[in-house]
Design goal:
The protein is an all-beta fold. About 0% of the residues lie in helices and about 55% in strands.
Length: about 140
């Protein structure tokens, strides 16, 4: 089952990895957020995919791709994990990845901010004391 990619008709924001051993594409997540860390790892958080039966599955998982060895690892994070979401934004500042907003199950629109400590793998909610940006 193909969940994303580009067919010339549409463009998806799915993450696909070329399995160089057999030359086939393997999709990983649709509508995810990812960012590169300085130590050669691709960090992927959240996302959603169509599971059939007119339903989407929303994720709040954290994954790492070792870009040198092309090996995926699911990270077991602790702390106060953000709710399952897609369409969020993220930025790395030092050893922290900040995540803002996104959409979740049942038309949920998140306006929250979390950071993930990329050393200890702990999620922490951020208490924002100013106004949030307007929707775009």
């Amino acid at each position: 089952m193909q969940r994303g990619g580009s067919s010339g008709v549409y463009v998806s924001s799915s993450l696909q990895l070329l399995a160089t051993a057999d030359g086939h594409w393997a999709d990983f997540l649709n509508f995810h957020l990812s960012t590169i860390q300085a130590n050669g790892k691709l960090v992927v958080f959240g996302g959603h995919f169509f599971s059939g039966d007119d339903k989407f599955v929303y994720l709040n998982e954290t994954w790492l791709l070792d870009v040198e060895n092309l090996v995926w690892h699911q990270v077991s994070c602790s702390g106060d994990l953000p709710g399952p979401r897609y369409g969020h934004s993220a930025h790395v500042l030092g050893s922290r990845m900040f995540v803002f907003g996104g959409k979740g199950p049942g038309e949920t629109v998140y306006k929250d901010v979390y950071f993930l400590d990329l050393v200890e793998w702990v999620w922490v909610p951020v208490n924002v004391i100013s106004e949030m940006p307007l929707p775009r």
